[in-house]
Every structure is written in structure tokens, then in C-alpha cells.
Amino acid sequence: MIRRLAGFSLALALAACGDAPVRVANEATQAASIPAPLADIVRIRLETEAGPILLALDHKRAPVTTANFVRYAEAKRFDGTFFYRAARTKGAAGRGFVQGGIRHSARRSFPPIAHEPTSETGLEHVDGTVSMARAAPAGAMGDFFIVVGGAMPAMDSKPGSPGFAAFGRVEEGMDVVRAILAAPTVANAGRGPMRGQMIEKPVRIVRASREP
């Protein structure tokens, strides 16, 4: 199982940011871009064609990553994007992750952010965790994934591996997330580790909005 999960980790690392340039914003730029004020827990509602998903983002423990996600939502950069990938764990029904977001769109992207590893935040990749996809440790922009069906410790940071930046969880709508994971995929679509994981009819994110 750990070997399969490590494969998932590699798949995300290879697929997260495509050919987009990785330019980490400097501290001043990052500070200027952080939406304010943000509570310790920030809720973002994703209205999708398959139903609503409510995310509870942990700004207290993952401030940079949460602020980045909120920035995309408030700038309407997620509106009209898709959940486009369903990575199902072989031999384990109902397990895997779904990936969505800007899909490397230069027009929608903000500069990449600094990486917040799970070893620093204390967050873990468990069922319902929302985390950032990225190609390099400091390469996350506007693509994210949601863990489904159980813990994926191989995605957490550990000696020799930065892991991925978990920054919240699904508070409502895991039934929608599970339906997206089960969506038909195209056998020959996608490159490398994403091959066979691209959703036949990607699920549109109609809008992403911050809850009051």
C-alpha cells in the first residue's frame, strides 16, 4: 500500500504545474497578496456541477497556503475551472484523490508560494484533506487535490521528501467528492502517471466563494 501511495505522490509532483515557470513570490509580494482579515478557520464553498463542497481551511496552521487559496477564490480564478482528475487506488475501492483547479493556466495563475510542509503545520493527509498540487516544493499555485477514503501518509513530509501542503478539509460535500472520484475516465488520456486518470466529462467548478 505504501508503495502505491508513494506512486500517487510522484504522480502529483509530476503533474501539478506542467510547464509553467516556477517563480516563488518574495516575502513582500506574498504579504501584499494575503487577503485580510482571515479567521483561524476560513470556509470556502465550491459550487460544482455535481453539487456543493464546503472547505474548512486552516489559516492558523497553514497561513500561506490558505491565503493563497482564498486569493484565487476572491479573484474568481477558480470560477469556470474543473475537477479534471480522478486518481483511484488500485485494489481499494473508494480510495484515491481528485484534483482540480486552474490546470496550469497562465492567465489564471498567481506566482507560486512557499511550501508549508506537514512537519511544520501538523496537518496530515487523511480522508477529506485538501492539499496543494505542485511540481516543485515551492511550486504550488492554483491546482489542488482532495484525499478520499483514508489516510495517505506518503503525501506527508518526511526526511528526504517535502511532501505536499495540506491546509484544510472538506466540512460538507464528501458525497460529491466521492462521486467525482468515481466518474468515468479516459483510458488513453493524460501523460505519464496521469494516464488513464483524466475525467471523461470534467466537473465544472461554477464558483468558489468565501463564507461570511
Can you walk me through this structure?
An eight-stranded antiparallel barrel has the order 1-2-7-5-6-4-3-8. Helices cover 21% and strands 28% of the residues. With 212 residues, it is of the alpha+beta class. It has helices at 2-15, 27-33, 63-74, 118-121, 174-181; strands at 41-48, 51-58, 81-88, 96-101, 129-132, 143-148, 166-172, 198-210. The protein contains five helices and eight strands. It starts with a helix and ends with a strand. The chain has a single domain, classed as Cyclophilin, CATH 2.40.100.10. The longest helix is centred in the first third of the chain and has 14 residues, at 2-15.
Beta-strand fraction estimate: 25-35%
Please identify the structural class as seen in this structure. Answer: alpha+beta
CATH topology: Cyclophilin
**Name of the level-1 CATH class:** Mainly Beta
Major sheet: arrangement of strands: 1-2-7-5-6-4-3-8
Number of strands: 8
Task: Tell me the CATH architecture.
Answer: Beta Barrel
- The share of residues in helices is 10-25%
